[in-house]
Amino acid sequence: MSSALVARAAFNRNVAAAIARRSLRPLAVQARGAADSAYVPGGPIYRGTVNDPTPFPPPSKTHGSYHWAFERLLSASLVPMTVAAFVTSGTNYPILDGILGVSLVMHSHLGFDQVLVDYLHPRKFPLLGPIFTWTLRATTVGVLVGIYQFNTNDIGLTELIAKAWHA
């Protein structure tokens, strides 16, 4: 009895697949028109578009696992640096104030750079991606210059935050 059920199920599956193929083929031909080539199961493959595999960059110590480890080390080191900067005064320890300022800017730069790499990569946005990347780099340099000027010619980053905290 069970062998009859298996045979009937296999037969029904084959018949249903054949009927589906025959019934869907005219729709595919009508959608493309008579001048196009015959239907290819799995769809046509276009060269030079999203069907091409992503080229892998050559191994580099500044990217990949070393880059990831540096980002995590920088993120983890911001916690004790921030605590140390607020326990001590920035005017008494200007080196700590400068390191904290540079670390915060680099941490922000790396985060925004990853957003650009993930969402505005040059393959999909050949014009917009590089423009935003260079805009981020120029902005980072400008902020670093501003942090340097603020730490050397004014009260410094930690003193500013301490005054804003107590205001």
Which helices and strands, and how do they pair?
Blueprint: H1 2-32, H2 65-87, H3 94-119, H4 128-153, H5 157-166
Task: Provide an overview of this structure.
The model has no long low-confidence stretch (mean pLDDT 78). The protein has helices spanning 2-32, 65-87, 94-119, 128-153, 157-166. Helix content is 69%, strand content 0%. The chain is elongated. It contains 5 helices and no strands. The chain starts with a helix and ends with a helix. Helix 2 runs antiparallel to helix 3 (94-119). With 167 residues, it is mainly alpha-helical.
Name the descriptors.
167 residues, mainly alpha
- Structural class comes to mainly alpha
N-to-C span: 86 Å
Report strand %.
under 5%
Order of helices and strands: HHHHH
Low-confidence stretches: none
Radius of gyration: 30 Å
Task: Give a brief outline of the structure.
This protein is an all-alpha fold and 167 residues long.
